[in-house]
Amino acid sequence: MMKKPCVYFLTNKNNTVIYIGATSNIIKRIYEHKSGKYKGFTHRYNCDKLIYFKQFSTMDEAIAREKQLKAGNRKRKEALINLENPDWEDLAENWIFDF
Description:
CATH class: Alpha Beta
Largest sheet: 3 strands, antiparallel
CATH topology: GIY-YIG endonuclease
Number of strands: 3
Number of helices: 4
Helix content: 25-40%
Radius of gyration: 13 Å
Shape: globular
Oligomer: single chain
Number of domains: 1
Strand content: 15-25%
CATH superfamily: GIY-YIG endonuclease
Distance between the termini: 17 Å
């Protein structure tokens, strides 16, 4: 189920930063963010809370949507999150990472 192309949003514990990414394996990618594997933007701003994700049929579709979302302003991103996850809960909180 989760090994499908996805676009996802991460934030920090105070919900002050929104990071948008695309991946072909959401479980593995979120594990990488939560474990601090990469020392880039998400690590620097402590973005490890999954607040939104959407699956797509192809990676090309996911990447196109990622670019579209990144071009939007914060208000539009917040509206999308609030529609799907109004409490901004960590959607991966109970995921099992067995890598």
